[in-house]
Amino acid sequence: xxxxxxxxxxxxxxxxxLDAALALDIPHGGWGLPATVRVDEPLPEKYxxxxxxxxxxTRCIERNVLETDGTLILTFADEMPEEALAARKSADKxxxxxxxxxxxxxGTFQAAQDIHEWLKEKEIHVIHVVGATEGTMKKRADKTTxxxxxxxxxxxxxxxxxxxxxxxxxxxxxxxxxxxxxIVTLLLTEMSLKDRVIVANMKEDQLELLWPTLGRHIQIxxxxxxxxxxxxxxxxxxxxxAAGTNDISTLIIKKVWEKLRITHRxxxxx
Length: 270
Known about the structure:
Helix content: 40-55%
Oligomer: single chain
Radius of gyration: 22 Å
């Protein structure tokens, strides 16, 4: 799971990585070129970067590679940018892990899952991020990188902390839910405070990240209720209430999120 994000702060992928750290309120840092030799616009003071006394961006990249657990390289084309090539070369030189994600070919959700699995496999917590810094993709790269890293971070939190989804079904004898709101209320009572804060801080387009955990849990609960004679009529009403939606679980997740956005949108504490 990501605990710190490092980059050289250049506009594009590297700047987007720092923006993700600020949005998630997790540590960030990195080495960059002195202001006198930077080719980008002045670096805002909100970024906690250190200037390296050099004119070589490659040296800054190598230092960032060395001071992190692994390097994430993000591209938007088959051809790798100069900084990405330098990062890969440094990582290979020092026998440190790296992963390349081409976002022109890989969707954001799949990319987030791939990065999440790589972080787990390599036991990476401090990540160096590098990639596109030139051309028309710079602004796109900023926002896309920030959203992607936020998604990766939430995948780690969800997998580690979504306690409600790992509990056995123990509602035999309970009054079956009569509406979607009843199901939402039940789920909220089962979720820990940290679970609620995690979901509340997610963006709507990140809710699909909850499918492997909370979504699956909801499906299991619905199937459990379908097997109960006293729940059949209630579930028929719930399905009527959800008419017009592609999936009841998706609708329930969104309603859980909407409630938590009002009551539990706080800073996340690891």
